[in-house]
Design a protein that fits this description.
Layout lengths: L1 E5 L3 H13 L3 E5 L2 H10 L4 E4 L8 H10 L6 E5 L4 H9 L4 E4 L4 H15 L6 E4 L2 E4 L4 E4 L2 E3 L3 H12 L7 H8 L8 H15 L8 E4 L3 E4 L5
Parallel strand pairs: 1-2, 1-3, 3-4, 4-5
Antiparallel strand pairs: 6-7, 7-8, 8-9, 10-11
Length: 225
């Protein structure tokens, strides 16, 4: 999952970024509001973390501008402004959540996971596709009662496909949401990792849950053909 983090206080920004990368997020971070707004307008994100007091362009202005573009990406405001009026203002501007500084990183991560699940209409951190179960909290994958060991990249690719199960997912979407480098993505790299996933998921002659849709990408489905 790809996250945009806009926070001007360097120590906090770096701590959040390191924590999210450890959790498996691909993170774009910015210390200024104008750059953060550019990122938000020009790249797709699964979730955005936004401070209010930013240089150049304030966080509420960024939020209102992206909502004017009909961008419904979940946005979490993180701010030291802890008054009820400020929190209400942020939520009324289009924020999905508001976390007051200082906060525990573990709470930030839990709230982000909840926003991502809501974005993809998933009620719990456990995703089921046929006989495949993905526990997003434990980063655990089981098929047919047998746990499957995946690399970090393989897991996050499968998790993204599972969040969008039943929908064709283009190679471009996969590259933008799973890989660190959004520019110049290689469709061959995506194909290679899909091959790795298929080999592990289909071990023992199990039917293929990942279907190729020519011209559209890949589809994770509980009705393999």
């Amino acid at each position: 999952m790809r996250c945009l983090l806009v926070e001007d206080y360097t120590p906090l920004r770096k701590n959040i970024e390191e924590c999210l990368v450890e959790e498996g997020y691909v993170v774009d971070s910015s210390a200024s509001g104008d750059e953060g707004l550019w990122f938000a307008k020009n790249h797709p994100y699964d979730v955005i973390i936004l401070d209010i007091m930013l240089p150049e362009v304030d966080g509420l202005t960024i939020l209102r501008k992206i909502r004017e573009l009909q961008d419904h990406t979940p946005v979490m405001i993180v701010s030291a402004r802890d008054g009820v009026t400020q929190r209400v203002e942020g939520l009324n501007a289009g924020a999905d959540d508001y976390l007051v500084k200082p906060f525990a990183l573990i709470e930030l991560v839990a709230r982000l996971h909840a926003l991502v699940r809501r974005r993809y209409d998933r009620g719990t951190p456990v995703l089921n596709v046929g006989d495949l179960t993905i526990d997003c909290a434990l980063k655990k994958v089981v098929r047919g009662g047998k746990e499957i060991s995946l690399t970090r990249r393989e897991y996050h690719l499968l998790e993204y496909l599972a969040f969008r199960a039943g929908q064709p997912v283009s190679r471009t979407d996969i590259w933008e949401h799973v890989y660190e480098d959004q520019a110049g993505g290689s469709s061959n790299a995506v194909d290679v990792y899909i091959g790795y996933l298929r080999k592990k998921l289909n071990e023992g002659g199990k039917p293929d849950l990942i279907q190729t849709r020519r011209g559209h990408g890949y589809l994770l489905t509980e009705s393999p053909t």
